[in-house]
Amino acid sequence: MESFKLYIDGRFDAGSATFDSINPASGEPWAQVAEARAQDVDRAVAAAHRAFQGAEWRDMTAGARGKLLLRLADLLEQHAPELARLETLDTGKIIRETQAQIAYVAEYYRYYAGLADKMEGSVLAIDKADMETWVRREPIGVVAAIVPWNSQLFLAAVKIGPAIAAGCTLVVKAAETAPAPLLAFARLIDEAGFPRGVCNVITGFAAECGAVLTAHPQVDHIAFTGGAETAKHIVRGSAENLASTSLELGGKSPFIVFDDADLTSAANAQVAAIFAASGQSCVAGSRLLVAESIKDTFLARLTEKVRSIRIGPPDRPDTQFGPLCTRQQQERIAAIVSRSLEQGAKLVIGHAAIDSPGFYYPPTIVDCSAQPDAECVKQELFGPVLSVLTFRDEAEAIQLANDSAYGLAAGIFTQNLTRAHRVTRRLRVGVVWLNTYRAVSPLAPFGGYGQSGFGREGGIDAALEYTTSKTVWLRTSDDPIDDPFVMR
Ligand code: NAD
Q1: Closest C-alpha residue for ligand 1 atom 20
Q2: What single Pfam family name could you report for this chain, choosing any that match (predicted)?
Q3: Residue 93: closest CA among 318, 254, 321
Q4: pLDDT for 486
């Protein structure tokens, strides 16, 4: 068994207990992980608070903070093969995907490194002749960054990068389902030379570790990625301390294919949208909305592609589709699909047991065109299940696309430019991909509407979420202040 410790106040820490992490490809424990209980969370937040108050961090220039992030990016690249190996072992995500993702995570750190000394304040053209007034951008304080198990190095980077650029300190909480990659990443934070307590990494269970962190009186901002139900607990917890929150939650993203679409590209993009990462992606294009006139042709192309997907052990370089992360998810997804079929949806392909140890569930397509209220159309499954609906015209496509409590992303496939613009404007989602899907960049803001959360990650605006402003008034007149009862 490999073992992983917490990282608190610049030291590797055994925590108050340990638990086993399970390899989803075998269903067996493979690592022993230190667990943060209430007292450990408290030590981590206290360390972040001390570091935030301390002179070393306070006096470090923005440029120097940027250099720390650059060093972290270099270390991440050097250790990418090991981190990808750990992520694949712990989450079951295929090695191709973890390798590719870690390569661009470094670019997020570099982007925020460059931004550190460009987060400027402003001087106001104030309406008073004897005043000089300016606005300083200041770090918001101690950040609790809570991430889910999927894409955790990436989801941590989009919080750590802007928070450090802004001058905050952090306690990062890795998901208990697959904590190893983030705890291993803490070794790089240590090597990069961050001052003690600036970036702490812990893990533990929701009821104790998560709840104590969320409601901690010394936490100023909570940056959360995960499910919508968890987010509601977090917002309730944050009310204790009136900490600000930014929430990146789930989705039920529509993938809209019009009758003039390039069907080869659309089919490949749809397969990527729902079956990459075995469907365990917040932006999974899990609702196919296809023009009625091309439904049969398009579904035939999709099923042909699905049949050719190579399902296998996630650590093999030629595997295209691996297991789900947990047994609980495997059982939940199978149960939702079974209930949807009982409700009248029709199975196109998939939903059959895979004869292998581990938490496998096959790529599955369910035709819900006669049953648009089936459970699998409404709920985020966070797995490889595509629900298919049809539309007759543009208006119906928009209505179906917006008929969701979520609003994270959407894909639109059409050759008609004016229609692409019209539909884009009408969709209540934070990201639209036109004739493509799943493209990301450090420059591009990312986030949702409705139950998909609020706040944005990526881009310049994300860094501003980790700052607050201070307005400073300087009276420039040397004349004495006379009448105390006149407003200045
Ligand atoms: P989850 O919500 O169960 O857990 C996420 C994190 O929150 C974990 O670290 C967990 O320990 C912690 N947590 C759980 N309950 C808590 C509580 N009461 N207080 C404090 N912390 C608590 O999510 P998951 O199953 O790990 O991940 C899947 C979800 O994440 C999906 O809904 C997916 O769409 C979403 N997600 C969103 C994005 C995005 O950027 N929008 C990206 C990836 C995943």
Answers
A1: 210
A2: Aldedh
A3: 321
A4: 84
Q: What is the pLDDT of residue 487?
A: 83
Query: Is 248 known to be catalytic?
Result: yes
- For residues 341 and 290, give the distance between their C-alpha atoms in angstroms, rounded to a whole number: 20
Distance CA 23, CA 325 (A): 8
Quick one: average pLDDT of 317-322?
97
- What are residue 367's DSSP bridge partners? 346, 388
Residue 488 pLDDT exceeds 80:
no
**What would the two tokens of residue 50 be?**
């001390």
Q: Which atom of ligand 1 is nearest to the CA of 174?
A: 9
The DSSP code sequence of 30-74 is EEEEEE--HHHHHHHHHHHHHHHHSHHHHTS-HHHHHHHHHHHHH
Tokens representing 285 are: 């294009």
Contact criterion met (CB below 8 Å) for 298 and 267: yes
Average pLDDT, the chain: 97
Distance CA(287)–CA(49), nearest Å, equals 44
Of 97, 248, 380, 457, which is the active-site residue? 248
Please answer whether residues 437 and 431 qualify as being in contact, where contact means their C-beta atoms are separated by less than 8 angstroms: no
Report phi then psi at 460, rounded to 5. Answer: -70, -40
Measured by CA distance, the residue closest to atom 43 of ligand 1 is 282
- Ligand 1 pocket mutation, candidates 19, 230, 286, 379, criterion most atoms within 8 A of CB: 230
Distance between Cα 175 and ligand 1 center (Å): 8
DSSP code of residue 150? T
